[in-house]
Amino acid sequence: MAxxxxxxxxxxxxxxxxxxxxxxxxxxxxxxxxxxQNASLILSIxxxxxxxxxxxxxxxxxxxxxxxxVLTCLLIILLQKKFSVKETASFLLDSIVFQYKxxxxxxVPSLIYTLQNNLQYVAISNLPAATFxxxxxxxxxxxxxxxVMMLRKSLSRVQWISLLLLFGGxxxxxxxxxxxxxxxxxxxxxxxxxxxxxAVVISCMSSGFAxxxxxxxxxxxxxxxxxxxxxxxxxxxxxGMLGMWWNDGAAIAEHGFLFGYTGMVWCVIxxxxxxxxxxxxxxxxxxxxxxxxxxxxSIIVSTVTSIYLFGFxxxxxxxxxxxxxxxAVYMYSLPKAAGGSSSPGVSSSASSVAAAxxxxxxxxxxxxxxAQGGDTSPPSAVHITD
Length: 386
Known about the structure:
Blueprint: H1 2-50, H2 58-80, H3 85-98, H4 100-104, H5 107-126, H6 129-135, H7 138-150, H8 157-184, H9 193-219, H10 225-255, H11 263-282, H12 288-310, H13 316-333, H14 351-358, H15 360-367
Helix pairs in contact: 1-11, 1-12, 2-10, 2-11, 5-9, 5-10, 6-12, 7-9, 8-13, 9-14, 10-14, 11-14, 12-13
């Protein structure tokens, strides 16, 4: 009898040890995926926007990413309905059309996300990748402030200090870049540092507001993240097409929707469409500290890669500013003391990542759903936010 109990206890310990090892491996995998997704999208967009030859229309790329995202979420809903087309169609008709008032709530964040995705292309096309990566972390500051104002969330003292360090670090980087912008942008006379900086600041503000607004909607609704992403995507496609017609309508009519698309451009679009969803799945195994570390490490990866790919120059001021930002991101992700309320999530540039942060627990049980992204961040979202 005693031998049987000892044997059972030994098996339970072995099982527990095996699960612990598996979770540890999944955490490292999650870290790698988060770093690659955070850095690769920015670097790849920067790369395709600096290549010689025909330039693809960024407005069409935004629309294509929304189309792919909606198709993916529809496939997941179909899978949840056990591939019953009739049941899926009935569910979507009821949720999107008949409950149109609920669907219309997504128009605001969808408009903001569409604007944000277009601004991201503008910013990365006019700023060095490393500078964009550092400056874009201001989304943490905007998300935190909107969370305090709109969701009545509280921040710990460490988090407030980290936000001050974040702002200071970004300011140092901008002072450094302002002094060296002619050298850093000498590779293309078509680039405009001021335009890029304005685009990234507006993108950060819109990311923060949209992420918190979306979280507020999700918390007041029983709808799944995947349905919300379909609703967002439908608005996103409509608004994206409107922007595409307004900005590039004549050129697209002449050259075609897919003008300038290369294999690398398709990689960027797939990364933008599926990156947030992928991060959402792996974040199940990552905690806030790991996400903060991944974001910090991705800044280093972007900087080092920019040196070799784009001839980016790193000096003492940039190193100091980036160091402050990296430290601030890590500090912000640290858990609050017992008894404190949870801190706001970091919003991603992608809408799917932002959705994940708000509804992580319940959705994970339904279908490995998302959380973010971002950052990802979203948040993220992205995601994203993004």
